Every structure is written in structure tokens, then in C-alpha cells.
Fold this protein.
Amino acid sequence: MGQVLIMIALGHFVYKMNINMNFPLFVCFFLLGIILFSFMGVLVGGISKSVESANGLAQLINFPMMFLSGIFFTASFYPSFLQPVIKALPLTYLGNAMRNVVIKNASFSAVKLDFFVLLIWTVVITAVALRFFRWE
């Protein structure tokens, strides 16, 4: 939470980003993102045989998702054959929702698709992660 607040403060004060944040929706998407990606980490740890393989698998998932989801580069930059992959990534919807909520003060109706896609991802990943979770 601290890192997010620092980034928003830097964006506003250093880069003069106009912030018209819908704070309740921001908190909702922030928490949904934390839950989703935490359980994604639990899933990676649950299916990995060692710490080294968990790190490799996490990187195999994270790096493509970061670069394809529109976080660093706009998704329209990529060729058409990658668009279905981009639309399947949960980080695409989290990034879109956070941009709309923080910068455009979007209402729930404007980001409800993002919310429901993230909710479905969260439920599925949580169920699968709990299935593979083990104490060792």
C-alpha cells in the first residue's frame, strides 16, 4: 500500500498527473489485485518442486504479463495475433481499471467488466491454488 501511495504522490507532485480518484473503487481494485496475485504466487509455489523452479515459473508468468498487458506499452502496439492473449491476462483488466479509476474518476458502471473479469480470475486462481497448496 505504501508503494502505491508513493507512486501516486510522485505522479501527482513530480509529473503533474491530474488525479480525480474514485477512492472506494480504487481500494476495491487494489484489494482484488492483491488477493489475485497473492494466490497466483501460492499456486506457483504449490506446483513447483523447488524454490528455483518456483522463481523460474513466476518469472515465466510475470514478465510476459507485464509487457503484454498494457502496463508498460499500450496493448494496441502489439500485433493482432497477440490481442486474444492480451485480453486473457488479468493484469490487462487491473491496469485498465486502475487507470480509469485513478485518472478519470470512473464509476463502477465504467469498470464493471474489469471488475467481473478480475473477480472470475480471483475465484478460479484461488480455488486452484488451494487445491495445490501444501505445507512442507
